[in-house]
Amino acid sequence: MRTLPITCALLLTGACADAPDPPPFAVVADSRQLMLSVLEPAAEVYWDAVGIIMDTVDTYEIEPRTAEEWEAVENAAWVLAESGNLLLLQERVQGDHWVAMSRAMIDIGRRAVEAAQARDADAVFEVGGDVYLVCTGCHAVYATETLRPNYDTIPDTIPDPP
User: Fold this and answer.
1) What is the pLDDT of residues 6-52, one digit of tens each?
2) DSSP element (H, E) containing 123
């Protein structure tokens, strides 16, 4: 009776050993190009989908209104989530912090997808803030030149040009 489980285990092991190796990935863009051409445009679509503009005349609420507009927001969210996986390809990984930030992008991307699928403008706005925090958390280490300046460090008076 004990030979049956052992035989099954050997058969399964043999079947797994015959499975082909997965195809290798062919990284085309470096991390910077991936950010500029894939991640950043998707984040901009997501961030621009919901908001409020106030001027001296009126207040304008921005949010998707049609199925096509919501689909664009959802598509952008999918790009954010899957971009985290692209950042985890071996050729791009730059250490443990990089891995943690890439996984955070996947997690926040999932939340972004859920908010868009629910067609919940308030949730899209809230998650958009969290997307921004993940992005700046990574940029604070790997792309400091992309961060906005700290206006607290700008002097009160600016000297006249020579």
Assistant:
1) 545 544 555 555 778 777 888 999 999 999 999 999 999 999 999 99
2) helix 121-142
